[in-house]
Amino acid sequence: GDSGRHCLKTQATPKKKEKKKTNSKSLEKMTCHKIFIVVSLILAVSLVNAVEFSVVDNTGDSAGGRRFRDEIGGISYATESLRAATDFTWSVFQQTNNPSDRRNPPMISMVMENGDYVAYSSEDKIRFNAGYLAGVSGDVRKEFTGIVYHEVVHSLQWDGAGQAPRMLVEGIADYVKLKAGYVSSDFVAPGGGDKWDQGYAVTARFLEYCSDFRSGFVAELNKKMRGGYTDGFFVELLGKDVNQLWREYKANYGQ
């Protein structure tokens, strides 16, 4: 940056004949050089861990596209949501100050389009169907944001090197959305569902219950899932088999 160039110019200044001025200049050069090194290190760290965000609107004049731009805030709000979701997910995974634990995609992108689905993520690219937004009643911005949070988690979470149950992966994504406060009124209530790995809201509520017994449980589970997966992770973290935990969870809510 400009500060770096200024430092280089200061260092290149010829020495003065007067001894006092020379000492003063030397001190200035040393201080400037140290500042330059510190700033350079900070920039290097931030660049290594930086995630870029990109949003493209291909919805044209569709009803969902108009809603995306007029009621949600268009590309600007969508980009802001990607960034906020990334920061929040890192906080839930306890990775804000532990970047070496992260799955660090260089970019998370989103394409708004007219399709026949809600949204999905593949290789850190989110495809979002604006047509879904056209039919949302109530707070469409909150609904949109919740879906963005869920999909962003998929770019940041570990999946047991492909070995974790898919519905557990989806449940963790919905858990982050739940903790962020972006769930809709039809989100499964605590105690709902038929099995712990049913996925999405059901598994999210179960993970919330498990977190009552160990603070940061989901963060620790995600960290363990970096290199592989086994149901034994629940025993290691909570001292109980996952199926026993599920039975106790259901009983806790009288089901």
Automatic annotation (TrEMBL):
<keyword id="KW-0378">Hydrolase</keyword>
<dbReference type="GO" id="GO:0006508">
    <property type="term" value="P:proteolysis"/>
</dbReference>
<dbReference type="InterPro" id="IPR007541">
    <property type="entry name" value="Uncharacterised_BSP"/>
</dbReference>
<dbReference type="Pfam" id="PF04450">
    <property type="entry name" value="BSP"/>
</dbReference>
<keyword id="KW-0645">Protease</keyword>
<feature type="compositionally biased region" description="Basic residues">
    <location>
        <begin position="14"/>
        <end position="23"/>
    </location>
</feature>
<feature type="region of interest" description="Disordered">
    <location>
        <begin position="1"/>
        <end position="25"/>
    </location>
</feature>
<protein>
    <submittedName>
        <fullName>Basic secretory protease</fullName>
    </submittedName>
</protein>
<dbReference type="GO" id="GO:0008233">
    <property type="term" value="F:peptidase activity"/>
</dbReference>
